[in-house]
Amino acid sequence: MAFTLSGDDAIQEISPTSIPEPYWVAISTSAAKMIGLELNADGFPQNEVWLQVLAGNQLLAGTHHFSNPIATVYSGHQFGVWAGQLGDGRAILLGDIAGQELQLKGAGKTRYSRMGDGRAVLRSSIREFLCSEAMHALGIPTSRGLSVVGSDLPVFRETMETAAVCARLAPSFVRVGHFEHFASLQNTARLKELADLLIREHYPECSTNKNPHLALFESICARSAKLVAQWQAVGFCHGVLNSDNISALGLTIDYGPFGFLDHFQIDHICNHSDQGGRYAYHRQPQIMHWNMACLASAFIPLLAMNHADEEAQELLRNALGQFSAFYTQSWQALFRAKLGLSTAQDSDIELIERLLQAMHDSRVDFTNLFRGLSQLKTTSPVESITLRDQFIDRPLINQWFADYLVRLQSEASNDIVRTQRMNDVNPKYILRNYLAQHAIEKAQQKDFSEIAKLLKILEHPYAEQYENSEYAAAPPLDLAAVEVSCSS
Ligand code: AMP
Ligand code: MG
Description:
By secondary structure, this protein is α+β, with helices and mostly antiparallel strands. Helix 4 (176-184) packs antiparallel against helix 5 and helix 4 (176-184) packs across helix 7. The model has no long low-confidence stretch (mean pLDDT 95). It has 15 helices and 12 strands. The protein has helices spanning 29-34, 49-55, 122-138, 176-184, 188-202, 212-234, 284-303, 309-320, 323-338, 348-362, 366-373, 394-410, 415-423, 433-443, 449-458, and strands at 11-13, 23-27, 70-72, 74-78, 81-87, 91-97, 100-105, 120-121, 144-156, 160-170, 236-237, 259-260. The radius of gyration is 23 Å and the shape is globular. Strands 2, 6, 7, 8, 9 and 10 form a 6-stranded antiparallel beta sheet that branches. Among the domains are: 11-170, no CATH class; 176-331, no CATH class. Residues 244-245, 254 line the site of magnesium ion.
């Protein structure tokens, strides 16, 4: 529901800035359906006014929801350093529709734009759109990508590019950075207003707790821990886990230089600008924990309204302390499921870790290896398992497969049932960078067909879709190292 904090220090009422001659680049049928937007056979809205609305050129007449667009203020830590006030520098919230907030990213300057131009380029808008929808289809909480509208308006990044507006949907775009903002100003009244809004609209179960604000903090931590475990389980690297990019609803938000792992490298860095690897794959859980610590600090004044300072800090410290357990529990459950295990044994963790280590050592494709495992039969002789060909250390992987088969036999695993269960959690199709890049390059030539095709495939990531199997392939060697920077 709409961000309803009152007062000039929380929002700026601002309309999007128009873009010249907008054209449709992409729309998600399933996201459109969520908000009751009717589409033609060509996949675009029947009512032409939507092109103008989602371009930011026109407000939706007649609906009070969309007549007062706003930009909200937030602050945050970027790469571990307090950066002060940040946004929304280019995202404008049009209003509520069907329980979702509709936000236009790249819709022009706001008073929070700092040195930015308020725009987003076509390339990054397509990436955000496709990945939002891909993550949703994978079953991972995320903001949704409703549409991308393009324009020939030039936008300068490293080179001259063109502008686009990505329309996104979420029940709320509140971030850790919103809390940090008001905490940094020692504005406890606003902090409380924000926390109470979240509880009322998104965490109603916290309202009956004897300490609703502490319960809210715990719930945000629990959701964030589960979210990051889900990322790890599909090999998703966010790329910029700054505290202003962390949703207070436990959603994946602000897709920038993200990347899915192709070959498995535990310390893979997907963001070319992240030289130190702060946001590398293996650090994501720890960094999410760190962001929750930022949130805990921001919550201190809230709890201090009803507790002595030391007690408030102690309560939050204890709550934060549960993050690792939440994360570990989710991670173990997800990876057990990836291996098709339906019971839990202590030794499973070692089994999972040995596999990941072997995959890392041989740089095995993360998605295809797990998908391939579902085809094993518990009675297969180890020598017949062709997946072994991808591993350099043969004796080691032979032992691993032998142990895995024994483990499956120990729970009398049924091959047919397990194959199905594993295929339901190990995707065949992910948004590999080289696939996104191919769609972007065509779009830059005004051919948007590849975006539509990719979207359709990624909407069913767990289905075989034999006709599209080439989209499941690891990148060809010359495309394996598509570099993605922060610029967007
Ligand atoms: P990001 O690193 O993309 O999460 O952005 C950090 C902050 O900078 C957010 O508040 C953005 O709204 C803002 N920002 C990023 N790019 C621009 C831009 N081109 N114009 C204005 N603000 C921007
Ligand atoms: Mg951001």
